[in-house]
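tool=predict chain=A
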Amino acid sequence: MPLNLLRVVGARPQFMQAKPLRRELELRGHKETLLHTGQHYDDNMSRQFFADLELPEADINLRVGSGTHGEQTSRMIEGIESNLLSQRYDALVVDGDTNSTLAGALAAVKLHVPVVHIEAGMRSFDKKMPEEINRILTDHVSSLLFCPSESSYRNLHSEGIKQGVYLVGDLLAQCFKEFREKAEARKKNVLTRYGLNPMQYVLLTLHRAENVDFPEYFEAYLKAIATSPWPVVWPIHPRAEKNVARFGLVDLAYGDPFIIIPPVGYLDMVALECASLKILTDSGGVQREAYHLRKPATVLRDTTEWCEIIESGWASLYLPGQDPLLLWKLPDVSGLKQEDLYLSTNVAECIVDIMEDAFV
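tool=predict ok
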């Protein structure tokens, strides 16, 4: 008997993780309804990600857009609940730590629909981050929890979550491996489009609420990054772009060494990562991609749930107030370990095997 699943997505890493699992489910004759909350509220960007990843359009798009955490999450819960009430699903599948993740989990568990959490057990141990709250709450109501790393597996056990917990590897890593060659084929065109030379620029992503929603913090980051000896290419997130104007940071953000470009799709972003000298990011997905490329990175946070990357030496943490020269230090990569920290082979296959055993 085929599975009937509701998959909730809403942001960049979730689109990427949807691809390998969707393909595996289709190969085995299972049904997956894809519900896009619209949390990634630039419709053009969402469509570009779906096109790059060769994903069909979402079956349902709630188009919730931006708003406070409460406003956004409540609209999502209402829309997801309505769909769950309209038909029977064997389980609801969520990824990661976004408001979409939490909304899906809360809507499902209250209707007694099993919750499957992909990328479970991740912890930054910083409850000031909305994402930390989202992933903790989701883990504690989930029936199946798929961990990408040994540390995430241990985190769940330390919190008393031991049933339904599996160490399967990282779906994002599986997707990245599959699309890397296609992205690298775009490098020349992407660099020409933005007037860039390979290995002569730094790539920046800066969008998390705790970094860009507070003017003193946002300005301090931009001032530190402005000391770069290389051009800094910044595909600017809508939240950051709005706050640059709101906080009077236009002259700083649009001056040297920043090269601000519109948000880019998945393949163009990976192409920019491939050709960069170094990556500065506050994104969990981008810091993992930097690691898979063996690209030096600085994580613009005081902690990260992807702690193995920091411990490996391929990335470091940075907060305003530290010496900006730390941002531009390039490690001696010849002395860094090259083995993969995250399983990236047959991750989707393993997840579907376990769901079949649990729900069929």
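Residues 178-335 form a domain with the Rossmann fold fold (CATH 3.40.50.2000). The first strand starts at residue 4 and ends at 9.
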